[in-house]
Each structure stands twice: as structure tokens, then as C-alpha cells.
Design goal:
single chain, alpha+beta, Phosphorylase Kinase, domain 1, Transferase(Phosphotransferase), domain 1, 7-stranded antiparallel β-sheet, about 35% helix
Length: about 325
Amino acid sequence: MISLFYLTASDDSESEEFRCLNISIKEIYSATNNLSASNFIGQGIAGKVYRGMLSNGQHIAVKHIFDNECVETFIREVTSLSHVRHPNLVTLLGYCEKEEECFLVYELCHNGNLSEWLYGKDKVLSWILRLEIAIDCARGLWFLHTYPEGCIVHRDIKPTNILISANFHAKLSDFGLSKVMDLDQSYVSSEVRGTFGYVDPEYQINHHVNSSGDIYSFGIVLLQILSGKRVLNLNSKKPMPLDKMARFLMKGRNISEFADPKLNGEYSVEAFELILELALTCTGLKKHRPSIEQVVIILEKALDISRRVELTAPHSTPYIV
């Protein structure tokens, strides 16, 4: 049997109520049609993820963890965060362990992840939506970094770990690498963990885990939101890291060249420059990086500027599916 917390409130509700349900392994298989390939969403280091629906009609995402080396540490770290609730964090509803495999049950975010929207050929995010998604992510990080029981460092902020709900609210996901520590403290990791291109260079050198590493990773994500580019363009004759490319263009004031072509020029230049400068500060030296609170304030300022400019025409749509 599995202890499952059922989210009874809507996605936008301020007051969320949870009631404990017991659900069998049989229902998990039933919900996903026996982990059918047609319900397959994606795969990470720890296992595969499937969409499903419980018998009560609740849409879920089920992570099937089958790597023996991941089960114990992943369950220990993730379940320690099961009580952490915020509108911009994907809710862990429950888990079930069986022999050498286990299942983690999450709320389902119907619009996939940010990576799909940035790089999908038939998907376009407007400038305003990009700002709102960035603010959602930053608010989620702010909550984690100031959590009363200790600063929670995510350690793997990247577009594929930013999920988009049915109403286009962004939620941080995948806390398998997260670490809880005292505020303003750091933890020395025995090995560098994270995803290539998003890992703080200073952390790679000294192995010190702290909230500043999340700020760096989020800065890289901001650059991707602005440019629609990947962290490293391997198709180029001279591959260049995204932050280095941004600094080069910023120095030459060729900022428009960095903008995602999908935006079709429909963005506030003032707000774009504000966020580009923010992203480069986030990815700069640790001592110069802003706090996540400062990040939220600057992003909200950029959104306010953009809304006042009224970028999009009345007939245009905020996104294209």
C-alpha cells in the first residue's frame, strides 16, 4: 500500500488541503496502464516518468525508479521534502517502495517542461509569459532558500526541471539532489552533482554546496529564456558557453542578436536588457551574485515595464500550442 497525499485545492488556491489516501501498487499500474509506452513522459538518471490517472480522476505523474543505486538515496532525500508545499513547487503526493524498485507520485503538470517550450518547433512562449515563468521559478527558489527549518538548495535547476501547469504557472521539480542546511551555511560534497552547463564553476572547484549555486543555475536558465539557445551550441564551428556568448554580445551592445527569434521582436528592450544584466550577474563571481529576493524584485520590475509598454497587439495570443 502507498500513503498518498491528495491535493484537493485548485492550482491557484492559496489554501491547500491534503488528505491521506491509501493506494495499492495495483492502482499505480492501473493508472498508468501498466506503465504503457503511450503514457511515457520522459526519463532521468533515476528512472522513467509516466502520466496516469487515479480511480478518483486525479491526474498524476509517476516516477518509476529502478536503479538500485538511486533508490535509497533518492527516497531518503525526496521524502524529507514531502512536507514542503508551495504553489511554485511540484507537489510530491506520495511514494511506494517494493523490493528493488519504487514509485514516486507527483501532481501532473499538463504543459510539460520549459525545455519543450523553448526548443519545441511548434511551441512559442510570448515575452510576458517568459517573464511570468521566470518569476514563478524565482519565487519557488526564494521559498526554498528561506525555508524556516533550513535553507533547501535544489542543486539541479534547469529547463527540464521547470514544469508548466495547465494554466502556465511554473513549478520547480526533481528534488533528488537537493540538500537541507542551516541558513548562510555551506556543505562540502564528496562529489560534484548537477547537470553539465548549469553547475556553478566555483562549486566544481571547492565542492561547497550553498544557495549561491542555485542562483548561478537560475542565471543560465534566464539566459535560455531570453535567447531560446541551449547551454552550449554544438552545431557551431566554435562552440561557446551561453553566458560567454551573452557577455560578448553585451560588450558590443549587440543585444538584439541574443534575443530568441521566436519572440519576433515583440519584447521590451529595456526589460530585456535588465534581465540580461541580471542573468550575467547571477552567473558571475559568487561574491557579486544577488540574493534570490533581489532576483525576484528585478524580474517583477521587468514584468511591470513590459506590461506598461503593452508589447503584444490585442489580437495576438500569449502562446501557441
